[in-house]
Write a structure and sequence with these properties.
The chain is of the alpha/beta class and 352 residues long. The protein has two domains: 3-178, Rossmann fold (3-Layer(aba) Sandwich), CATH 3.40.50.1970; 232-344, Dehydroquinate synthase-like, alpha domain. The protein contains 13 helices and eleven strands. The chain has helices at residues 20-23, 41-51, 68-80, 95-107, 121-127, 165-181, 186-191, 202-219, 234-243, 250-267, 274-284, 294-301, 330-344; strands at 3-6, 12-16, 31-36, 55-59, 88-93, 113-118, 132-137, 140-147, 152-155, 313-319, 322-327. The chain starts with a strand and ends in an 8-residue tail after the last helix. Bound molecules: glycine (GLY). Glycine (GLY) is lined by residues 126, 130, 132, 227, 230-231.
């Protein structure tokens, strides 16, 4: 049973184990469970049997739940149930659900205990660990939120077995990113046929991908430094999500965004790692992109949270496991965008 310790002011454990949802519990007598409305009823039942919530709040699937309006509805339900300060909120769902549930926990009564049960690969390797919670604005993704680490995270690989293959592959983008920025041993393991729930070694690869994130957020919870490296590929990814109104999923957008970041890294003098990101896209088979306009995307990239008063900084790679932050001139962003677009256009080289 892999257990990953996350340090910081309030350390917690991420448990990765088939069937762990049925064995989880929390030391709170009053609990609210926030669940993705699209989850199988059996999983919600399993969570209710484990945590005995006094209310279960369903929220829309995916990023449709990450709005101020949905957040307001959830907070009202918590208030109407008189959930007390020593109560707890538990999020059950993919990365969007746990982002919303965590932010509801962070803001209700100025903060109640939060626990996370991610049900997607993306949620397990990234969103549920590290305490970034929040919602989107029409102006951009994740522009409102708080750092509110969970008290525990339970990753039950059994929940991944019934994910649609495209949703599973989508989530692998964040695990692959952890390979590129920190642990290259993950790269071939993720692309191997054994990277499937139930296969020998799957739990260990999942745990190793989570370990990368756990280490980073232990050292830099509030993104004063190295946590920004977790955003490799995300500057373009968030812009793709925004311009397509989330028609492109987060994991697919990260797959595309990592390839752009690899091409940018090469252009400004780093090693050529675009073979890795191209192979990942071929494996991931992300949803095709619509016709894109650089200037429109660049408007969103300029709002990236890594921007400071002097402009946007991209996470680039000198080489595998050697990330750094760099301002890239707009002319370079534009010319590399054209190279990237010629590769990711469905009519072009990649076989998806
Ligand atoms: N998903 C990036 C981070 O947690 O910092």
């Amino acid at each position: 049973m892999p257990q990953i310790e996350v340090g910081g002011a309030q350390p917690y454990t991420v448990t990765v184990e088939a069937g762990v949802l049925g064995r989880a519990s929390v030391p709170h007598s009053r609990v609210a469970l926030i669940v993705d409305a699209g989850l199988p009823a059996e999983w919600v039942k399993r969570a209710e049997q484990a945590f005995h919530p006094e209310l279960t709040i369903e929220v829309p699937s995916g990023d449709a739940c990450k709005t101020l309006e949905v957040l307001g509805g959830v907070l009202s339900k918590l208030a109407l149930s008189n959930l007390p300060r020593d109560g707890a909120v538990i999020g059950l769902g993919g990365g969007a659900t746990t982002d919303l549930a965590g932010f509801a926990a962070a803001s209700y009564l100025r903060g109640v205990a939060y626990y996370s049960v991610p049900t997607t690969l993306l949620g397990m390797v990234d969103a549920a660990v590290g305490g970034k919670t929040g919602v989107n604005l029409p102006e951009g993704k994740n522009l409102v939120g708080a750092f509110w680490p969970p008290r525990a995270v339970w990753c039950d690989p059994e929940l991944l077995s019934s994910l649609p293959p495209a949703v599973f592959r989508e989530g692998a983008a964040e695990a692959y990113k952890h390979g590129l920025i920190s642990d290259p041993s993950l790269l071939p393991r993720i692309l191997s046929p054994g990277f499937q729930p139930g296969q020998p070694g799957f739990e260990q690869t999942l745990a190793d991908a989570i370990t990368v994130k756990a280490g980073v957020v232990t050292r830099d919870l509030t993104e004063q430094g190295e946590r920004a490296f977790l955003n490799f590929g995300h500057t373009l990814a968030h812009a793709l999500e925004a311009v397509t109104h989330h028609g492109v999923s987060h994991g697919d957008a990260v797959g595309y965004g990592m390839h752009y970041a690899a091409l940018l890294s090469r252009e400004v003098g780093g090693a050529d790692l675009s073979g890795h990101t191209r192979r990942f896209l071929e494996w991931q088979q992300p949803k095709s992109l619509p016709q894109l306009n650089f200037d429109e995307l660049n408007t969103y990239m300029a709002r990236d949270k890594k921007a400071d008063s002097t402009g946007v900084r991209f996470v680039l790679l000198h080489d595998l496991a050697r990330p750094y932050l760099e301002r890239v001139p707009e002319a370079v962003l534009r010319s590399v965008f054209e190279v990237w677009q010629s590769e990711v256009s469905p009519a072009q080289n990649l076989s998806f």
